[in-house]
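Run log // design_07
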């Protein structure tokens, strides 16, 4: 038979742990990540034959989200165009958009355009837009 004090301890200890976790929950909620990542540095954007677009940029940084977990989006003339992929190395972040690869995928229309990029952290915060680069789309 268990000693009465041991039974009281077995009941009181889990209750104390629940109270401790409940007390710390508001502190965790107040430290939610609200700081956006730095803007990526757009270093390369070029339009090619048949509307192919290739974009390269340096990686962004964030105060909480590790670099490999940041997500990148390319914008053409201010509209979302598609994701860029972090290569996981110093080679940076690249995007290659070609209609044949992503049917009916985004194809750069003939003419002059402006390309920018943004980074997004795990909390959903978007960076400011990168510098813009002009590109020209070419018909097939």
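design_07 sequence
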């Amino acid at each position: 038979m268990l000693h009465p004090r041991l039974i009281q301890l077995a009941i009181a200890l889990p209750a104390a742990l629940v109270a401790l976790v409940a007390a710390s929950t508001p502190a965790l909620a107040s430290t939610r990540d609200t700081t956006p990542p730095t803007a990526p540095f757009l270093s390369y954007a070029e339009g090619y034959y048949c509307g192919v677009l290739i974009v390269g940029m340096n990686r962004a940084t964030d105060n909480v989200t590790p670099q490999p977990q940041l997500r990148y989006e390319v914008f053409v003339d201010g509209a979302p165009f598609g994701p860029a992929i972090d290569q996981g190395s110093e080679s940076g972040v690249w995007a290659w958009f070609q209609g044949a690869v992503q049917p009916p995928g985004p194809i750069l229309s003939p003419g002059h355009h402006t390309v920018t990029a943004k980074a997004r952290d795990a909390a959903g915060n978007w960076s400011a837009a990168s510098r813009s680069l002009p590109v020209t789309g070419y018909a097939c």
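The two ends are 87 Å apart (CA to CA).
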